[in-house]
Recover the amino acids of this structure.
């Protein structure tokens, strides 16, 4: 078999969609597993949907995810391309470079090529010029729909325009498109690596536009020419492209080129089994980064969207290294993959638990810095030591970093609460006062090194005897001012002795 060459060809229409990341990841893993080449190219011929800055952001998102390319498009000052490759600066995107022997890797820099190949097809009678104006095309479409026929082009220009007329129109710069002359009654069949045999009759395919009147190629033409010239061996892409594949196969046939293998990845579905879309929440990888998901968790999650290593395999946690070894395209499912945010949260929580205290602090700090309760806190409460303590308590319950401190704002702010909250069940005023005073005595007797959760707990439990609630509830409320919080020993440990005693004093003050 030829050396495996796969590609990820996003369109710069905004952001890297989570489904795009999955396509990129599966291509990357397939290349790694087979000792092949992973190429990034950019499909920017749809000028109407082009978004400024999207090319750079797509590249950066792949860099962030650690999906290194062997060839194609890179940012100049990040993720350098393999040194052995010929490198050029992109004509259209400053700061972007292209590395490899089959470039340019950006479609807007390959326009001449597409034109040349489209004209070649016209020359060999496999494609034809179409001068029909939009109004006419709209009209035929309406008529066909009204008479319950497929809204296909009626081949007016193929049947009625003579070679002389064509030359004249071209000379006088009439706007035109180039259409593929789709053969009649041909069976187009291919073996999809995921879906098995796919078969379709060419009569159901419209004469595809290959070159648009603005001189840009359509996706179909550009995609096939690139995949051929870039020696793509496997086209791995989302299922939404499955209807395009027969058209591409017709193009390969028209050119007389070898056809690559295809694998179409299952649709991503929301938990109510509808196609995942922007309306249902975040679909941009950037949003997940912004919300404090770790790259390891996102990669792990995305890897399992439509793929699993085997029946009966219960392992859920996979590193990128591990995936590179075990990924098998044959194990990609046909059925839609449900995008379950709860699973992502769970995975992210697992990765958060594994971070060292320094890593946890480093990752969490930028998220604290965006929060008002942190910005307005005293310098002591902003210190590394203090935040590390907060995080020690929070890490077991964190799903993502945007949650840091959110449920425990009392670590950073002055607390306010009504005195009744201090009361455990129906304890009397006197018992409540005794309870808080007992806490003052217990905590007041613990010094320096002994100020540890375990030790605080032992001392409090010993003092509480069999009436734990009587001692612990008022203490917890005195320290947090909240109905729900971590345990009083954890609260005391984070706040420190001085602040804990101060909060207890304030609680006693409320009793009058
Ligand atoms: N530009 C297409 C996209 O944005 C690529 C489809 C393909 O892989 O052929 O997904």
């Amino acid at each position: 078999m030829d050396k495996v060459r796969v590609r990820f060809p996003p369109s710069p229409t905004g952001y890297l969609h989570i489904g795009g990341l999955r396509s990129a990841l599966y291509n990357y893993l397939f290349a790694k597993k087979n000792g092949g080449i992973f190429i990034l190219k950019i499909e920017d011929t749809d000028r109407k949907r082009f978004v400024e800055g999207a090319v750079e952001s797509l590249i950066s998102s792949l860099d962030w995810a650690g999906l290194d390319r062997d060839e194609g498009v890179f940012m100049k000052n990040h993720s350098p391309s393999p040194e052995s490759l010929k490198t050029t600066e992109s004509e259209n995107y400053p700061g972007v470079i292209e590395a490899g022997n089959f470039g340019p890797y950006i479609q807007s820099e390959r326009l001449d090529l597409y034109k040349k190949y489209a004209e070649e097809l016209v020359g060999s009678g496999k494609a034809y010029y179409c001068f029909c104006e939009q109004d006419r095309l709209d009209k035929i479409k309406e008529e066909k729909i009204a008479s319950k026929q497929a809204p296909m082009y009626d081949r007016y220009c193929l049947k009625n325009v003579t070679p002389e007329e064509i030359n004249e129109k071209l000379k006088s710069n009439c706007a035109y498109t180039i259409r593929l002359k789709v053969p009649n009654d041909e069976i187009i069949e291919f073996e999809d690596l995921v879906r098995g045999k796919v078969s379709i009759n060419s009569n159901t395919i419209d004469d595809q536009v290959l070159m648009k009147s603005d001189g840009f190629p359509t996706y179909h033409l550009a995609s096939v020419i690139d995949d051929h010239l870039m020696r793509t061996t496997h086209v791995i892409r989302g299922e939404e492209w499955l209807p395009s594949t027969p058209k591409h196969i017709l193009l390969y046939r028209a050119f007389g080129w070898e056809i690559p293998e295809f694998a179409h990845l299952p649709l991503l579905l929301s938990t109510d089994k509808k196609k995942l879309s922007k309306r249902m929440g975040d679909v941009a990888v950037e949003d997940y980064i912004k919300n404090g998901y770790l790259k390891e968790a996102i990669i792990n999650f995305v890897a399992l969207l439509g793929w699993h290593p085997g029946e009966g395999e219960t392992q859920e946690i996979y590193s990128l290294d591990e995936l590179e070894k075990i990924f098998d395209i044959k194990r990609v499912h046909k059925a839609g993959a449900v995008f379950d945010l709860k699973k992502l949260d769970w995975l992210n929580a697992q990765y958060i638990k594994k971070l060292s205290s320094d890593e946890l602090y480093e990752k969490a700090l930028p998220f604290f810095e965006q929060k008002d309760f942190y910005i307005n806190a005293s310098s002591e409460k902003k210190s590394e030591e203090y935040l590390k303590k907060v995080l020690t308590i929070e890490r077991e319950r964190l799903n993502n970093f945007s949650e840091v401190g959110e449920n425990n704002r009392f670590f950073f702010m002055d607390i306010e609460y009504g005195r009744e909250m201090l009361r455990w069940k129906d304890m009397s005023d006197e018992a409540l006062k005794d309870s808080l005073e007992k806490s003052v005595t217990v905590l007041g007797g613990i010094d320096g090194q002994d100020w540890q959760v375990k030790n605080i707990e032992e001392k409090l439990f010993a003092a509480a005897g069999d009436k734990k609630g009587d001692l612990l509830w008022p203490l917890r409320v005195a320290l947090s001012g909240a109905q729900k919080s971590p345990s009083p020993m954890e609260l005391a440990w984070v706040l420190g002795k001085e602040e804990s005693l101060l909060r207890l004093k304030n609680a006693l003050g409320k009793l009058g």
